Amino acid sequence: RNMSSAGPEGRKKMRECDGLIDSLVYYIQGAIADHEPNDKATENCVCILHNLSYQLETELPETYAQTIYVQRRNISSDDKTPGCFGTRSRKVKEKHQDTPLPEEKSSPKGVESLWHSTLIRIYLSLIAKSIRNYTQEASLGALQNLTAGTGPMPFSVARTVVQKANGIPSIRTMLHVSHPAVKKTAVSLLRNLSRNTSLQNDIAREVLPDLVSVLPESVPGSDIACETTASICYTLYNLTQSSSHNARLLLSTDGLPKIIAISMNDSNMFSKASRAASVLLYSLWSHTDLHNAYKK
C-alpha cells in the first residue's frame, strides 16, 4: 500500500508485476463473497488499486493505446495533441463520449482489470457494504481516478457506473456521511460523472436534490469543506448548464438562496467555493425562461 503511492515509476512497476492486480481483485471478491467487506486486508487491497488507477489514462503503455483502448478512426486527422490521451478540445471530447470501447474481455488480466466492469462493480459493492471510511474513500477515489480523463475510457467507466451498474444510489448515500474526506471524494466522483452529457439527466434525477441539501448556508470554514462545496457547485453547473429542466429542479429544491449566499460571502471573496457559486449563478441566468421564477 505504501509502495503504490511512490509515484509514476512505482505505479508502472506494480502494474506490470505479473499476477499482482489479479491477486488483489481475487482477494476482495472473496471478502465480499464471505460477507467480510470490513477487514483491514480488504482496505489495503482497495487502497493499492486506488493508487494504481491514478493517472491511468496518461500512463497506459502505447500498446494499450493502439490495440485495446482507443478507436482512433473517429478522431480527426488534424488533431495535433501529442500521444493518445493529452488535453483535447471540447469538440474532440464530445466525439469521445460517443466512441465505444472495444468489447470487454470476459477474463481480464493485469492492468486490463483496472478499468473492467467487474472491478467497477466491486468498488460500488464496497461503497454500499463496507463501514470502513478508508475502504469507502478508496473505492470512491478509484472510480474518481478512472473517470478523470478526457479519452473514451473515463466516459465508458462513467456509463458503466451510472447506467449498467446503477451506482448512483450508493454514491448518493456517501453524500450524507459525517466523514469529510469520504463526502469530498463522493462529490468529486459525481463531478467527473456529470461531465458526460449523455448521463446528465440520469444523474440529476437521482442526486441533484441531495447535492442541494448538503450545500452549506454559506462558505464553510475548513479547507476540505470549502473544496467539497466548490465541487458541488461545479457538479450542479454541469447538470444545469444545458438543461432548463434541471435548473428548474435546482430552483424547486431551494438551492438558489444557498448558492447566492455562498457567492456573496464577504470574508471569503476569493475562496474556491465563492468563485464556483458565482460561475453557477452566471450559468443559471442563461436560462431566460426562468428569469421570472428567479426574481420571485
UniProtKB/TrEMBL annotation:
Compositionally biased tracts (Basic and acidic residues): 95-107
UniProtKB keywords: Cell adhesion, Cell junction, Repeat
Example GO BP: heart development
Cellular location(s): Cell junction
InterPro entries attached to this UniProt entry: ARM-like, ARM-type_fold, Armadillo, Plakophilin/d_Catenin
GO cellular component, one term: plasma membrane
Region (Disordered) location: 79-109
Family: Belongs to the beta-catenin family.
Protein's name in the database: PKP2 protein
Native source organism of the sequence: Sclerurus mexicanus
